[in-house]
Amino acid sequence: MERIRVGIVDDLALFRHGVRSALKELDPGLDVILEASSGRQLVELLQQQMPDVLIVDSTLNDMSGLDVTKIVKQQNPSVGVVIITAFEDEEELFKAIKVGAAAYVTKDIAPAELVSVVRRVQQGNYLINDSVLARPLLASRVLHTFRELAIVGPDTEPIFVPLSAREVEVLENIARGNSNKEIARNLGISDQTVKNHITSILRKLQVNDRTEAVVYALKHGWIKMEQV
Protein backbone atom coordinates (compact mmCIF):
# COMPACT_ATOMS: atom_id res chain seq x y z
CA MET A 1 0.00 0.00 0.00
CA GLU A 2 1.25 3.47 -0.88
CA ARG A 3 3.01 5.34 1.90
CA ILE A 4 1.57 8.71 2.81
CA ARG A 5 3.43 11.60 4.44
CA VAL A 6 1.28 13.22 7.13
CA GLY A 7 1.62 16.46 9.07
CA ILE A 8 -0.19 17.33 12.31
CA VAL A 9 -0.81 20.89 13.48
CA ASP A 10 -2.28 21.39 16.95
CA ASP A 11 -1.22 23.50 19.91
CA LEU A 12 -1.74 20.60 22.33
CA ALA A 13 1.21 18.20 22.46
CA LEU A 14 -0.95 15.45 23.96
CA PHE A 15 -3.40 15.64 21.06
CA ARG A 16 -0.61 15.52 18.49
CA HIS A 17 0.85 12.49 20.26
CA GLY A 18 -2.53 10.76 20.29
CA VAL A 19 -3.13 11.32 16.59
CA ARG A 20 0.41 10.23 15.68
CA SER A 21 0.12 7.05 17.75
CA ALA A 22 -3.30 6.18 16.35
CA LEU A 23 -2.22 6.64 12.74
CA LYS A 24 0.97 4.60 13.24
CA GLU A 25 -0.83 1.78 15.08
CA LEU A 26 -3.71 1.43 12.63
CA ASP A 27 -1.83 2.05 9.37
CA PRO A 28 1.97 1.65 9.24
CA GLY A 29 1.84 3.20 5.75
CA LEU A 30 1.09 6.60 7.25
CA ASP A 31 4.34 8.39 8.09
CA VAL A 32 4.02 11.46 10.34
CA ILE A 33 6.87 13.55 9.00
CA LEU A 34 6.16 16.80 10.83
CA GLU A 35 4.34 18.20 13.83
CA ALA A 36 3.71 21.86 14.59
CA SER A 37 2.21 23.62 17.58
CA SER A 38 1.40 26.81 15.68
CA GLY A 39 0.79 28.16 12.21
CA ARG A 40 4.09 30.05 12.32
CA GLN A 41 6.04 26.92 13.18
CA LEU A 42 4.31 25.03 10.39
CA VAL A 43 5.31 27.64 7.82
CA GLU A 44 8.93 27.19 8.88
CA LEU A 45 8.73 23.40 8.73
CA LEU A 46 7.12 23.42 5.29
CA GLN A 47 10.30 24.97 3.91
CA GLN A 48 12.07 21.71 4.75
CA GLN A 49 9.48 19.06 3.91
CA MET A 50 5.96 18.92 2.46
CA PRO A 51 3.38 16.35 3.59
CA ASP A 52 0.80 14.71 1.34
CA VAL A 53 -1.94 15.27 3.91
CA LEU A 54 -2.07 17.83 6.71
CA ILE A 55 -4.33 17.49 9.75
CA VAL A 56 -4.95 20.99 11.13
CA ASP A 57 -6.74 22.09 14.30
CA SER A 58 -9.36 24.72 13.51
CA THR A 59 -8.25 27.00 16.37
CA LEU A 60 -4.54 27.50 16.92
CA ASN A 61 -3.02 30.04 19.28
CA ASP A 62 -1.62 32.27 16.54
CA MET A 63 -3.99 31.73 13.60
CA SER A 64 -7.04 29.77 12.55
CA GLY A 65 -7.01 26.46 10.75
CA LEU A 66 -8.60 28.28 7.83
CA ASP A 67 -5.63 30.65 7.61
CA VAL A 68 -3.23 27.71 7.77
CA THR A 69 -5.14 25.95 4.99
CA LYS A 70 -4.99 29.04 2.80
CA ILE A 71 -1.22 29.35 3.29
CA VAL A 72 -0.61 25.66 2.59
CA LYS A 73 -2.78 25.58 -0.54
CA GLN A 74 -1.02 28.66 -1.88
CA GLN A 75 2.36 27.03 -1.37
CA ASN A 76 1.37 23.61 -2.67
CA PRO A 77 -2.18 23.04 -3.98
CA SER A 78 -1.65 19.27 -4.09
CA VAL A 79 -1.53 18.97 -0.28
CA GLY A 80 -4.79 17.60 1.09
CA VAL A 81 -5.89 19.48 4.21
CA VAL A 82 -8.09 17.95 6.89
CA ILE A 83 -9.49 20.53 9.30
CA ILE A 84 -10.31 19.00 12.67
CA THR A 85 -12.53 20.89 15.10
CA ALA A 86 -13.96 20.50 18.59
CA PHE A 87 -17.41 21.61 17.47
CA GLU A 88 -18.92 21.67 13.99
CA ASP A 89 -19.76 25.17 12.81
CA GLU A 90 -21.65 25.71 9.56
CA GLU A 91 -20.03 29.09 8.87
CA GLU A 92 -16.57 27.63 9.42
CA LEU A 93 -17.47 24.69 7.18
CA PHE A 94 -18.48 27.10 4.40
CA LYS A 95 -15.20 28.98 4.77
CA ALA A 96 -13.29 25.67 4.79
CA ILE A 97 -14.75 24.96 1.35
CA LYS A 98 -13.64 28.36 0.12
CA VAL A 99 -10.02 27.90 1.16
CA GLY A 100 -9.82 24.43 -0.36
CA ALA A 101 -9.93 22.05 2.62
CA ALA A 102 -10.54 18.46 1.56
CA ALA A 103 -12.24 17.33 4.78
CA TYR A 104 -13.83 18.84 7.88
CA VAL A 105 -14.17 16.50 10.87
CA THR A 106 -14.72 16.72 14.61
CA LYS A 107 -12.22 15.65 17.26
CA ASP A 108 -14.47 12.83 18.42
CA ILE A 109 -13.84 11.02 15.13
CA ALA A 110 -12.91 7.36 15.58
CA PRO A 111 -9.21 6.66 14.95
CA ALA A 112 -10.00 4.13 12.20
CA GLU A 113 -12.23 6.67 10.48
CA LEU A 114 -9.48 9.30 10.63
CA VAL A 115 -7.11 6.84 8.95
CA SER A 116 -9.70 6.32 6.21
CA VAL A 117 -10.11 10.09 5.80
CA VAL A 118 -6.36 10.57 5.41
CA ARG A 119 -6.14 7.78 2.82
CA ARG A 120 -9.11 9.06 0.81
CA VAL A 121 -7.94 12.67 0.90
CA GLN A 122 -4.52 11.60 -0.36
CA GLN A 123 -6.31 9.93 -3.29
CA GLY A 124 -7.82 13.27 -4.25
CA ASN A 125 -11.29 12.86 -2.74
CA TYR A 126 -13.09 15.88 -1.29
CA LEU A 127 -14.87 14.39 1.71
CA ILE A 128 -16.03 17.85 2.67
CA ASN A 129 -18.72 17.37 0.00
CA ASP A 130 -20.60 14.97 2.28
CA SER A 131 -20.59 17.51 5.11
CA VAL A 132 -22.01 20.16 2.79
CA LEU A 133 -24.62 18.07 1.01
CA ALA A 134 -26.02 16.90 4.34
CA ARG A 135 -27.07 20.52 4.91
CA PRO A 136 -29.48 21.68 2.15
CA LEU A 137 -29.29 25.36 3.08
CA LEU A 138 -25.50 25.32 3.05
CA ALA A 139 -25.45 23.42 -0.25
CA SER A 140 -27.74 26.08 -1.70
CA ARG A 141 -25.43 28.81 -0.42
CA VAL A 142 -22.40 27.16 -1.99
CA LEU A 143 -24.22 26.80 -5.32
CA HIS A 144 -25.20 30.47 -5.17
CA THR A 145 -21.54 31.35 -4.70
CA PHE A 146 -20.67 29.18 -7.70
CA ARG A 147 -23.13 31.22 -9.75
CA GLU A 148 -21.60 34.49 -8.58
CA LEU A 149 -18.22 33.24 -9.75
CA ALA A 150 -19.74 32.28 -13.09
CA ILE A 151 -21.12 35.80 -13.51
CA VAL A 152 -17.75 37.34 -12.72
CA GLY A 153 -16.11 34.98 -15.20
CA PRO A 154 -16.66 31.30 -15.91
CA ASP A 155 -12.94 30.65 -16.18
CA THR A 156 -12.20 32.06 -12.74
CA GLU A 157 -9.68 29.81 -11.01
CA PRO A 158 -11.82 27.49 -8.86
CA ILE A 159 -11.34 27.90 -5.13
CA PHE A 160 -14.38 25.86 -4.20
CA VAL A 161 -15.12 22.15 -4.15
CA PRO A 162 -16.55 19.96 -5.42
CA LEU A 163 -17.27 21.86 -8.65
CA SER A 164 -15.81 24.94 -10.29
CA ALA A 165 -18.07 27.66 -11.71
CA ARG A 166 -17.59 26.30 -15.23
CA GLU A 167 -18.38 22.74 -14.14
CA VAL A 168 -21.68 23.95 -12.65
CA GLU A 169 -22.56 25.47 -16.04
CA VAL A 170 -21.67 22.23 -17.82
CA LEU A 171 -23.79 20.24 -15.35
CA GLU A 172 -26.76 22.52 -15.91
CA ASN A 173 -26.40 22.08 -19.66
CA ILE A 174 -26.29 18.31 -19.23
CA ALA A 175 -29.49 18.53 -17.19
CA ARG A 176 -31.15 20.37 -20.10
CA GLY A 177 -30.36 17.40 -22.30
CA ASN A 178 -27.71 19.16 -24.39
CA SER A 179 -25.12 17.11 -26.24
CA ASN A 180 -21.41 17.76 -25.83
CA LYS A 181 -21.39 19.74 -29.08
CA GLU A 182 -24.35 21.86 -27.90
CA ILE A 183 -22.68 22.48 -24.54
CA ALA A 184 -19.47 23.51 -26.31
CA ARG A 185 -21.41 25.92 -28.53
CA ASN A 186 -23.43 27.35 -25.62
CA LEU A 187 -20.34 27.97 -23.50
CA GLY A 188 -17.94 28.91 -26.28
CA ILE A 189 -15.48 26.12 -25.52
CA SER A 190 -14.16 23.11 -27.45
CA ASP A 191 -15.72 19.63 -27.49
CA GLN A 192 -12.60 18.25 -25.78
CA THR A 193 -12.86 20.84 -23.01
CA VAL A 194 -16.46 19.77 -22.42
CA LYS A 195 -15.34 16.14 -22.19
CA ASN A 196 -12.62 17.12 -19.72
CA HIS A 197 -15.15 18.97 -17.54
CA ILE A 198 -17.56 16.02 -17.60
CA THR A 199 -14.78 13.63 -16.59
CA SER A 200 -13.91 15.96 -13.70
CA ILE A 201 -17.58 16.23 -12.63
CA LEU A 202 -18.04 12.45 -12.58
CA ARG A 203 -14.85 12.03 -10.57
CA LYS A 204 -15.67 14.72 -8.02
CA LEU A 205 -19.27 13.56 -7.52
CA GLN A 206 -18.13 9.92 -7.57
CA VAL A 207 -20.78 8.83 -10.07
CA ASN A 208 -20.53 6.70 -13.20
CA ASP A 209 -22.32 8.67 -15.91
CA ARG A 210 -23.99 11.94 -16.91
CA THR A 211 -27.45 10.83 -15.82
CA GLU A 212 -26.24 9.89 -12.34
CA ALA A 213 -24.50 13.26 -12.07
CA VAL A 214 -27.74 15.13 -12.87
CA VAL A 215 -29.81 12.97 -10.49
CA TYR A 216 -27.21 13.50 -7.76
CA ALA A 217 -27.20 17.27 -8.29
CA LEU A 218 -31.01 17.48 -8.32
CA LYS A 219 -31.33 15.28 -5.24
CA HIS A 220 -29.01 17.49 -3.23
CA GLY A 221 -30.34 20.80 -4.49
CA TRP A 222 -27.30 21.83 -6.55
CA ILE A 223 -29.53 22.46 -9.56
CA LYS A 224 -33.32 22.74 -9.79
CA MET A 225 -35.72 21.68 -12.51
CA GLU A 226 -37.01 25.22 -13.08
CA GLN A 227 -33.44 26.27 -13.82
CA VAL A 228 -32.95 23.54 -16.44
By CATH, the topology of the largest domain is: Rossmann fold
| Anisotropy-based shape | elongated
Order of helices and strands: EHEHEHEHEHHHHHHH
Regions with little confidence, pLDDT below 50 for 5+ residues: 149-161
- Count the domains: 2
CATH class term of the largest domain: Alpha Beta
Class from secondary-structure proportions: alpha/beta
Strand percent estimate:
5-15%
Helix content: 40-55%
Please state how the strands of the largest beta sheet are arranged side by side.
Answer: 2-1-3-4-5
**DSSP summary, beta strand count:** 5
Query: What is the radius of gyration?
Result: 19 Å
CATH superfamily of the largest domain: Response regulator
Describe this structure in words.
- Helix content is 54%, strand content 12%.
- It has 228 residues and is of the alpha/beta class.
- It has 2 domains: 4-133, Rossmann fold, CATH 3.40.50; 136-227, Orthogonal Bundle (Arc Repressor Mutant, subunit A), CATH 1.10.10.
- Strands 2-1-3-4-5 form a 5-stranded parallel beta sheet, sandwiched between helices.
Secondary structure elements and their pairing?
Layout: E1 4-9, H1 13-26, E2 30-36, H2 39-46, E3 53-57, H3 65-75, E4 80-85, H4 90-99, E5 103-106, H5 111-122, H6 128-133, H7 136-152, H8 165-175, H9 180-187, H10 191-205, H11 210-219
Helix pairs in contact: 1-5, 2-3, 3-4, 7-8, 8-9, 8-10, 8-11, 9-10
